Amino acid sequence: MNDTISLLMNHRSIRKFKDQPVTEEQLRTIVSAAQMASTSSNVQAYTVIAATDPELKKRLAELAGNQAYVEQCPVFLVWCADLYRLKQVTAEPLQGRESHEDTTENFIVATVDAALAAQNAAIAAESLGLGIVYIGGVRNRIAELSELLGLPELVYPVFGMCVGVPDHEPGQRPRLPMPSVLHYNGYSNEQSVAPVREYDVTMAAYLKERTGGKRDATWSQVMADRLGEPIRLHMKPFLDGKGFMKK
């Protein structure tokens, strides 16, 4: 195991930060590392918005489900899939030809590009002694949040990311057994599902310890609760209104 793999294997989501700033140099280093992530056809279809203004972070925290650490972290990054830039800069070179920036494929490209860049940023931040936590809650009230940030057509916030100096050392959440996710030469239905029985025992013990005995649900139970309730059904009409996936 080398230093890079050790860093990756020790990842934890940080939800409490010290009252210590992330410097401009650190932020630029983090975003520079993000920009070196793989990107489909060099499209680079993402934009990251760094929220540092206290009032803005407070409002973003409210829109993201009243998650206090969004307001408390020194920098809150909003990672956006961005096809607006592509549409604008290609208008003249296209010379009147039809543009297809609104395809489902390009929506996938932009979303994946944002995710790849963000994960590079996460590792860069952790290598600098900082901590991060992803915030999917930016999609809770996505229309209001997009208006607050002035996001134009063909731009949507994929997720947020709190960045700062950790003020706690949380336990590490166990992952699925490798046989469940690593298949050779084709998909194995049985291999995908069978190891979950073992994982359910592991996760129940983890939750019991983490909550001081208040909760001991299995992973399958937690996932059933998640699938049993519709989540963010406003996303499709919102994306339609933003000009995504018309083709």
TrEMBL record:
Gene3D superfamilies assigned: NADH Oxidase (3.40.109.10)
Keyword Metal-binding among record annotations: no
InterPro entries: Flavin_OxRdtase_Frp (IPR016446), Nitroreductase (IPR029479), Nitroreductase-like (IPR000415)
One matching Pfam family: Nitroreductase
CDD domains the record matches: NfsA-like (cd02146)
The keyword Nucleus is assigned to this record: no
Domain Nitroreductase: 9-164
Keywords linked to the UniProt accession: Flavoprotein, FMN, NADP, Oxidoreductase
Membership in a protein family: Belongs to the flavin oxidoreductase frp family.
Protein name, UniProt field: NADPH-dependent oxidoreductase
